[in-house]
Protein: N-acetyltransferase domain-containing protein
Organism: Microbispora corallina
Amino acid sequence: MPFHVRLAVDEDLDTLLAMRQEIANWLASRGSDQWQNPWPDERRQRGRILSGIVRRETWLLCEGGRAVATISLLDYDAGNLWTGTEGGREPALYVQRLMVRPGYMGLRIGVRLLGMACVHAVQRDLPWIRLDAWTTNVELHHYYLRQQFHFKGYIPDKVLERPDLAGYPSAALFERGVDTGRAGGGEAVRCARHEAKNFSTLPQNGSTTRAAEGSVKTPALQR
């Protein structure tokens, strides 16, 4: 059954929460503390995800009628997390809630969704793609480095000291350029456009291609 991308709608909220829990369970089985508790609490986490749907920022990758992955794309710094970082006030596209169901990891879905983000950034004339990753998930950090992101340090302490960010668990900042004049740009853009071009070329779940690519990991992104 072919894959397709669509905007999430209000009725997808429970699906997204279930996907998140499925991935949280997978992360726990690997010894990670990521997503083991909602931040800052379940009610506000649910509201944050719903807000992304209402604002038409959240996309779903579906196989037939089943959502198997998601990504949210924003053209603003939600929470002003990059305030105080070098170049942090420059325009950028911000990636949130990149998630792939465990049964679909190894298909380069995360890579292609990041490619879609790159295309969106180019279309909006935004020179950077930025994201904040779970602070303690080093494997996740390495994943983004392999996707030509650059580690930009951690959210400044003066930002994390704000009451609304108390206990914020995703303080590792990553950035990738999306034009030939930026660090991480050029070839990254060409590759990203190729990856994002046609989701229908993804191998189907359980195929031999997926088994061959089983070492490719697509971790989740917290927000």
